[in-house]
Amino acid sequence: MAIWQGRPKRKPSGGRLRLARKKRKFEVGREKQFTHLGARKVKMYRTKGANQKARLLMVDTANVIDPKTKTVKKVKILTVKSNPSNPNYVQRNIMTKGATVMTELGEAVITSRCGQDGVVNAMLLKASE
Fold this sequence. Notes:
By secondary structure, the chain is mainly β. The protein has helices at about 90, 115; strands at about 35, 40-45, 50-60, 60-65, 70-80, 95, 100-105, 105-110, 120-125. Strand 2 and strand 3 form a beta hairpin. The longest helix has 4 residues, at about 90.
């Protein structure tokens, strides 16, 4: 069944809303597709205005910025350490914005939206000794 992001049939008070029109194509959402750890795999989506979004399905590298030296390096992601959006995502190695990942440089927090931007940007928290 499709995901619909239009107005609900009920008011916040619980009263019924009588809709003046049917559902529209621009109100249809998309199924969740998570960004896993693995060889890079991207899926392109057409959006409104014939623009495109790149949805990362799998990725194994990240652009990590070191706040001390102000340098950016492309490093390998080893594993997902924690994910505040869902603790179950850690076991499944699913990456979202705000997730803490272990990289070759150390722990980093993801700052980009992987399912919309098509890239994983992260900020280094603590370097590995």
